[in-house]
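Mods, move this if it's the wrong board.
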Amino acid sequence: MRLDKFLKVSRIIKRRTVAKEVADKGRIDVNGQLAKSSTTVKPGDRLTIRFGNKTLEVEVKELKDTTKKDDARSMYDILSETTPDNLD
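Not the wrong board. Structure tokens:
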């Protein structure tokens, strides 16, 4: 599944166009490698997403083409969430 579609379906980012912009600006790594919006993700991949004021690291658990809001959270595990307040 494409990275931008995963981010939208899992509701980490609410709109696919926003997910595409974030990825294409170099703010997302997949398994430590800089990723574009078209990068393929699969279960077990680790995503590091740098938002304006926080960094979110998640592991992909499963892929679904569509999902309901309540089920979206089951697609990934949050490994860490860092904000400027809890940095070193």
